[in-house]
Amino acid sequence: MSDSELFVAHVPGIQYGVLDSLVGYAVRRAQIRMYETFIMAMEPWGITPPRFSAMVIVSLNPGLKLTQLAKIMGIARSGAVILVDALEELGYMQRLPAPEDRRAFSLALTEKGKADLVKITAAVQAQDKAVTQMLDSKEQADLHRLLLKLSDAAI
Amino acid sequence: MSDSELFVAHVPGIQYGVLDSLVGYAVRRAQIRMYETFIMAMEPWGITPPRFSAMVIVSLNPGLKLTQLAKIMGIARSGAVILVDALEELGYMQRLPAPEDRRAFSLALTEKGKADLVKITAAVQAQDKAVTQMLDSKEQADLHRLLLKLSDAAI
DNA sequence: TATTGTTATACTCTATAACTATA
DNA sequence: TATAGTTATAGAGTATAACAATA
Which domain holds residue A17? Predict the structure, then answer.
């Protein structure tokens, strides 16, 4: 962000024209806001959105290999290596030998990773709730449902 | 994206846990989808989301200076230089001397920029409509309204 | 002194491609 | 031959900081 100033969605006196009518532009602005607040909420742990996703997925699907994690997250294998390296350095994830394949690793959270994930998840949920608090319950549910409908649609 | 494969929101057999309950995660996935289709739709013109925003804003607010554009778009001044450089190289934007300030430039679209922006805008609107087509009219309006409410809220 | 545009530099994220060790 | 993980490398995108010209 420029000069440490926060992003202003609409600068007074400026015409935004067609941008204001695009769902895609609104999605992008919402994403910027969500990302900013996520990073602030995760500051104590050094967790980014992809790191959080990786921790949750490995936690619930123990024994995943790096290639599987990459496919699930939609990133390149080399990206998964860097992601796991970072989580290993934070003491949250470990590469265990895969019993049936000496080329591969079984990914798992460390005990510290499991313990901190509980607190991290609570903080993420609180942040998600805080950002959406200006919507009433029905609006929150509608927004969530419509976003899922948008991105889960067949391509 | 990994190995030229498209992002799959839910890989069969994988547990996503709390991720599926977060509005922020849904926003991110919707944004990935919107971005992918935007880039595909803009392939004939080499236009990215920030380039499109810059063209629209300069088109509707002619005479803007680089520093103003940077502030409006929420990027650093150095980023605006690179953005304008790219649009100038595409033949879409020009730096005109600012009449009242010899340090600054007045940004404006070229004739080619104005002409192509009409077609580009039509393609962007078609893409936005295509991605949201699985929502009915009311759902589209609701989604747009709720996204704006989310990102326009006071921080 | 402050501001405008620019440049130099660096950091993050992510991709492709080549490599090694296994399968 | 194909696959798992790794490494090297490169390309966006964006940031900070310093600079010359001008205000």
Answer: 1-41
Assigned domain for A108 exists = yes
Residue A56 burial (CB count, 10 A)? 23
Interface contact flag, A143 B139, Cβ < 8 Å:
no
Q: Is residue A153 part of a domain?
A: no
Is there a domain that residue A101 lies in? Answer: yes
Residue B89, min C-alpha distance to chain A (Å) = 23
Mark which residues 125-144 of A lie under 8 Å from B by CB: 125, 127-128, 131-132, 134-135, 139-140, 142-144
- Cβ–Cβ below 8 Å for A18 and B77: no
What's the Cα-to-Cα distance from A55 to each of A1, A40, A148, B19, B85, rounded to whole Å?
Answer: 28, 18, 22, 11, 40
CB A84 within 8 A of CB A29: no
Residues A33, A94 within the same domain:
no
* Closest A-chain CA to B19: A53
Question: How many C-beta atoms surround the C-beta of residue B24 within 10 A?
Answer: 24
**Is A54 inside a domain boundary?**
yes
Are B127 and A24 in contact (CB < 8 Å)?
yes
> Per residue in B16-63, pLDDT tens?
999 999 999 999 999 999 999 999 999 999 999 999 999 999 999 999
The closest nt to A84, taking CA to C1', is D5
Interface of A with B in 106-125 (CB under 8 A): 121, 124-125
How many Å from the CA of A102 to C1' of C20? 13
Give residue-wise pLDDT tens across range A66-125: 999 999 999 999 999 999 999 999 999 999 999 999 999 999 999 999 999 999 999 999
pTM as predicted: 0.94
Q: State whether B15 and B66 are in the same domain.
A: no
Q: In this structure, what CATH number is given to the domain that contains residue B50?
A: 1.10.10.10
Q: B7 and B54: one domain?
A: no
Please state, in angstroms and rounded to a whole number, the distance separating the CA atoms of residues A36 and A39.
5
The number of distinct structural domains making up chain A is 2
What type of residue sits at position B9? A
Say yes or no: A60 and A24 in one domain. Answer: no
